[in-house]
Amino acid sequence: xxxxxxxxxxxxxxxxxxxxxxxxxxxxxxxxxxxxxxxxxxxxxxxxxxxxxxxxxxxxxxxxxxxxxxxxxxxxxxxxxxxxxxxxxxxxxxxxxxxxxxxxxxxxxxxxxxxxxxxxxxxxxxxxxxxxxxxxxxxxxxxxxxxxxxxxxxxxxxxxxxxxxxxxxxxxxxxxxxxxxxxxxxxxxxxxxxxxxxxxxxxxxxxxxxxxxxxxxxxxxxxxxxxxxxxxxxxxxxxxxxxxxxxxxxxxxxxxxxxxxxxxxxxxxxxxxxxxxxxxxxxxxxxxxxxxxxxxxxxxxxxxxxxxxxxxxxxxxxxxxxxxxxxxxxxxxxxxxxxxxxxxxxxxxxxxxxxxxxxxxxxxxxxxxxxxxxxxxxxxxxxxxxxxxxxxxxxxxxxxxxxxxxxx
Amino acid sequence: xxxxxxxxxxxxxxxxxxxxxxxxxxxxxxxxxxxxxxxxxxxxxxxxxxxxxxxxxxxxxxxxxxxxxxxxxxxxxxxxxxxxxxxxxxxxxxxxxxxxxxxxxxxxxxxxxxxxxxxxxxxxxxxxxxxxxxxxxxxxxxxxxxxxxxxxxxxxxxxxxxxxxxxxxxxxxxxxxxxxxxxxxxxxxxxxxxxxxxxxxxxxxxxxxxxxxxxxxxxxxxxxxxxxxxxxxxxxxxxxxxxxxxxxxxxxxxxxxxxxxxxxxxxxxxxxxxxxxxxxxxxxxxxxxxxxxxxxxxxxxxxxxxxxxxxxx
Amino acid sequence: xxxxxxxxxxxxxxxxxxxxxxxxxxxxxxxxxxxxxxxxxxxxxxxxxxxxxxxxxxxxxxxxxxxxxxxxxxxxxxxxxxxxxxxxxxxxxxxxxxxxxxxxxxxxxxxxxxxxxxxxxxxxxxxxxxxxxxxxxxxxxxxxxxxxxxxxxxxxxxxxxxxxxxxxxxxxxxxxxxxxxxxxxxxxxxxxxxxxxxxxxxxxxxxxxxxxxxxxxxxxxxxxxxxxxxxxxxxxxxxxxxxxxxxxxxxxxxxxxxx
Amino acid sequence: xxxxxxxxxxxxxxxxxxxxxxxxxxxxxxxxxxxxxxxxxxxxxxxxxxxxxxxxxxxxxxxxxxxxxxxxxxxxxxxxxxxxxxxxxxxxxxxxxxxxxxxxxxxxxxxxxxxxxxxxxxxxxxxxxxxxxxxxxxxxxxxxxxxxxxxxxxxxxxxxxxxxxxxxxxxxxxxxxxxxxxxxxxxxxxxxxxxxxxxxxxxxxxxxxxxxxxxxxxxxxxxxxxxxxxxxxxxxxxxxxxxxxxxxxxxxxxxxxxx
Amino acid sequence: xxxxxxxxxxxxxxxxxxxxxxxxxxxxxxxxxxxxxxxxxxxxxxxxxxxxxxxxxxxxxxxxxxxxxxxxxxxxxxxxxxxxxxxxxxxxxxxxxxxxxxxxxxxxxxxxxxxxxxxxxxxxxxxxxxxxxxxxxxxxxxxxxxxxxxxxxxxxxxxxxxxxxxxxxxxxxxxxxxxxxxxxxxxxxxxxxxxxxxxxxxxxxxxxxxxxxxxxxxxxxxxxxxxxxxxxxxxxxxxxxxxxxxxxxxxxxxxxxxxxxxxxxxxxxxxxxxxxxxxxxxxxxxxxxxxxxxxxxxxxxxxxxxxxxxxxxxxxxxxxxxxxxxxxxxxxxxxxxxxxxxxxxxxxxxxxxxxxxxxxxxxxxxxxxxxxxxxxxxxxxxxxxxxxxxxxxxxxxxxxxxxxxxxxxxxxxxxxxxxxxxxxxxxxxx
Lengths: 408, 313, 259, 259, 430
Ligand SMILES: Nc1ncnc2c1ncn2[C@@H]1O[C@H](COP(=O)(O)OP(=O)(O)OP(=O)(O)O)[C@@H](O)[C@H]1O
Ligand SMILES: Nc1ncnc2c1ncn2[C@@H]1O[C@H](COP(=O)(O)OP(=O)(O)OP(=O)(O)O)[C@@H](O)[C@H]1O
Ligand SMILES: NC(=O)CC[C@H](N)C(=O)O
Ligand SMILES: [Mg+2]
Ligand SMILES: [Mg+2]
Fold this sequence. Notes:
Structural class of chain C: alpha/beta
CATH topology of the domain at 13-105 and 173-255 in chain C: Rossmann fold
Oligomer: heteropentamer
Strand order of the largest sheet of chain A: 1-2-7
Shape of chain A: globular
Bound molecules: adenosine-5'-triphosphate, glutamine, magnesium ion
Order of helices and strands of chain A: HHHHHEEEHHEEEEHHHHH
Largest sheet of chain A: 3 strands, antiparallel
CATH class of the domain at 82-158 and 274-401 in chain A: Mainly Alpha
Structural class of chain A: mainly alpha
Number of strands of chain C: 10
Strand order of the largest sheet of chain C: 6-7-8-3-9-10
Number of helices of chain C: 9
């Protein structure tokens, strides 16, 4: 019948730029574009004028120059003769380390607090409310500093662990002979891997995967035969036995290195610096309060009817949790949870307040300062966080789409 | 130009530390006092005629250069070391040296350390964004010993951490170490190690590019030094003098002020605020004060020190 | 409705006791919800419970299923005494199926998964067998073709039928219904009631809270009227509707039959 | 309804053209919603549009009001050609009032404010005058006493009447209705239809999408049947209902008159 | 037959409700169900009680034995003599510094205090629109100008001029909105700008006209600085957020892209990096001789930051409106600007209030980050001048507890309000 053809063209008058809906939006966009170009070029011209006045230029060459400063926490080897770029990478890794760990612990805190807040024990639920309200309503920076202050002033001075010069016994020794809480950080044992150590390590990883495999086997078996196999005991065995066997077979290639007092501090072992602990803990406990709220809201969002229906079918409370409530609650909880992870990552930039050498401390701090390359450094810094945010948001969109409940 | 801006504004924006006793610190009434502050006041007096026409902007080791580069401050008098890269790459102009210093280490006495080379494995508090941070890395590397750096933003926080025992050693310019130790509850429990690991010529600086303004700052500082050399003190500013250089300095002969865009009495006003270099030194950080620094390198050249002002001619 | 099926209220019922409630009392805090409830249900009996809102109908049948605790008196189901003993509760719940007003299907599971969840995890039926049973009951409630959809994709009436099928998959000997049709649009009520009638015809013991008087007439052996936590009157449907004894029953009937 | 008022379909209509649509086509993306629509409406004519769901009825009347753009053909209202020229659009919108299925009252404004908003801001009528006009029309739709309530406090029927009054306050010469009664409970439909009949009696040009066939019989000069984006049949109500020509019309009428 | 069985009976009289059996009500019952209903529950109770005891046993002596009168930490320690009390004298001595910073002239403390007190008259009309008459919104509208004048001082002509500019701009906007949104916006901005220029000249000429002594921005500090940043940035970011949200909904691709990029960019980076921008980068983008001070640059960046978050909240509000509202406005002949101002925004903003309040609380907490770029807000004051002073070095708990209490009271209050408001909106008559 009819075919698609262009609408009749009316003659163009200049007034139509404003009065005609077809051209109007072009006019506005053009004006907007001009305004944007004008303001951007104004800013850029100011920038150039200022750079010119100060005799500076924009260049990233400084990234190749030796950094000259030391970083105390080095996930990859680094010394002061390495480049600023490497210092930047070290900082970025430190950011990711603390952000990742904080995400894990914040989730743990949050889930515990959120669930306990719903507990029928009055004291516990009230205590959790107090925790949530107090931590949510006081700036994270203050918590960070308070926790930093606690570690620096409440933990025992490391001097008390030192061997006095007269050779007498130190005032304090390692707790259980393995770890020490001091005002310079927490010292814990570290695993050392000999030649075959990696095999043991990978065996251990494989065992963890094995537990999940076993779990799905248990389910499959139940589905197939209606017999439920025991889970916890075999899981424990899977976790321990292969690793142990590997360890013994390979001739004990994994050792434990205990912290040992040197001249000034513990050597060997693993040192968790106060700045790291403060940042990690502050981010976890602060964000945990928010996550607790999300968890609580998620569980409350599952109507009582769901639990009752499951109970009426004879399902036991534990199973009701795992089969009915959690799968639904997670859909509600996970999106806000991911944005909390995003917040943790962004808030980890507060590291600078306690001297933890994350990206903000290296690139945005010392490098910026020693080189004076403010614009370049800040730009790079923003780019890094932006990339992480976008990745996390992409993941979140994907997740949201994949769990959307089917509706009519 | 900066001079016009400052005159139009009526106050001098001067960057100082966030607080180092004797060098720059607000007193109980909130009035800034100190050795670096005196330089600011002298410049303000020379330019504006009023030593109190200064807005002090506290800066940390990190923020100081951006504050100066962005024009937030006109002059930075903040125990800043004159280095090659700051002068050239960061595009600043050091107008002189008001304190010849070197980097040192402070440790608690009962740590039983007598030299910096014994510090292998120690935890060291440093201020980030300073030369001391870089010197420290160099020192330990060249001596092939390890250390654990604890980077900290401001001097006062570094002191807090040090006193809390969160670091074993605190390192910065020896002058600042001495000044801060003087404020300790028990100064005697801490010692400065004899090692001086760097040269730290500290002086005021301005932005590159405005040489007139740089000249004013440079010659105000020189005026303070020359005045001491010539025996001009805040007490005898009005006394007749037979020395032609004194008369030139105080504007009684010639017109040096006009050459830098100021009036004849500029130097006299600058000297009237806190006196000459020696007076400023003595009243803020000298041996009579709690800080108790000796003149040492900072004596006049005639007395075997390094202070040597070009002539006023 | 009455014309579509045989009137089941005349069907034979056994004299085995399915549920026996003796002198049961329940309080919420200080509020006395159920007072001195005495009720014996024979196997195969179909009982309709009605009464004004808040009279404790839901509470009563929820007590039978141990969804609520009672504080005094005894309830026993199929000879098992309902106590706080977990084993007894489990036993009773596996005997008794329940349908709720708001269906309470599990929205994250397909219809088939909804129906097989409990058989697999509680009864430990192999999955395959459980699915076959589920399909059998889904066919019975006439929606086998929806098995792989999610509850959100079905209409209210279909959801309620799934809920019934889900209960049946546990092969209960007694079914409790709590106003199964009151959240439904009028055109869907019929399909659910038809399903329930079919169940009744097969001889299932049923306790049903409902205000569908047509259903009561057609299906019930006995109608129980509750008010203020008490069983005020109980009788076979005919005498109950035509000749209520208690004045509150009369009032109530005049209201609900009025419109 | 037919008994409450005169049958207006016999009223005189002028031969001035109010709306003329020629060869109009519209696509949503590649979906051809309206095909070759030709329609001329005389001033004073009352047209009822009916047709199955998705046939493009709403789209058609939304095009007349420039709520949707058409891609081919021309629409002119009162001699003003509907183009993308803003001035024309404004002109047409001030000539044409529209009522929606869901009333679309502004919930944050009182009834009176709803009615005076456009006159004040578009027509620049002084507030006082606008309020007088508003009260006049509110009286006409018989709810002057609700003037200071908020829409949320009124029943659906009242809201729809307010929506009509709101349109009338702009003193349109043409009124468009898009299923004005289909979101209403049965008991409210009548009050709205009465209002519309009253409007019709006063000689308003009306285009009304509705399935109220009683209304169509009583009021319309012409009934238009649309299907799949086309005008399939148009005729005066009597012949349309009693003797539909097109087979799709027959089918449709048998369905909607069936229940 | 069905009637055969014997149980049928009919109650003839009502039995009165019996009192619940003992152990079903009262304190004992409460304890039984809430504290010791099972063994794990009882253990949890024990743990909970122990935690509470532990907290209180530290807290109570600290507060009860605390001293409020000494002059420095050494005196304080002598007075306390190991009693476990707190040195609250740091608060009595330094509270003014913590509240106002150390450079705000002490004789003018009454000015910010008054401004703060006035906040309680200015805010309720905006937050409780359903309970207070509309005209009280005038107080809200006037407040920023009054507060500005009180805190910064200077001639009264400055705030009057600013107010006049805003009013002229708004007037121009309403008059021009029949020509379209862009024209109205442009006209409003130009109108306001002209008035500001004019008043700028007048005020420049008469700096002493009804003047309070001027205080410079850099002298603002302490909790006052947090309040200023919070209040100023949130109020400024609401209009900006509205514009961004509308832009993001726009059908014009260019405008939409610009808004989306801006919003996502700002939301993707930590506030600290934006503060770095304010601190070290922004000055590069201003003309060489303009001397925009740090607090202003910080306000610019924080405003942009919160505007992006508020834009997202408002976008949610806009999305929640049915399209019918837009269509009804269109069909009545309202143009875009009118439809937005009269129909869409009033409803969208109302829905968005709880979200905006949440953003505001978060932002207020985040104002403490300015201490990282060496501004002396409450946190900066404590970390810097107070804890590093010889007198009070080492009194962490007291000072930080003070800071915590200040923030907690404000933030908790606001978030409780927001919860209340959410409930209110849910049960609204619509
Ligand atoms: N969890 C509870 N706590 C306190 N009171 C309750 C609780 N559940 C129900 N009630 C009260 O117990 C009484 C009986 O409730 P029930 O739900 O059994 O009534 P019902 O007869 O089913 O009414 P409806 O027809 O409205 O469903 C009501 O007054 C109700 O308010
Ligand atoms: N914005 C749109 N984008 C794409 N397709 C649309 C849009 N609006 C409507 N349609 C489609 O256009 C067709 C006609 O829609 P229209 O609303 O005009 O039908 P209708 O006759 O009014 O139906 P109903 O009786 O259900 O209101 C429908 O198939 C609809 O799906
Ligand atoms: N301690 C300081 O803040 C200054 C350290 C050193 N003099 C420098 O300029 O970098
Ligand atoms: Mg009920
Ligand atoms: Mg339609």
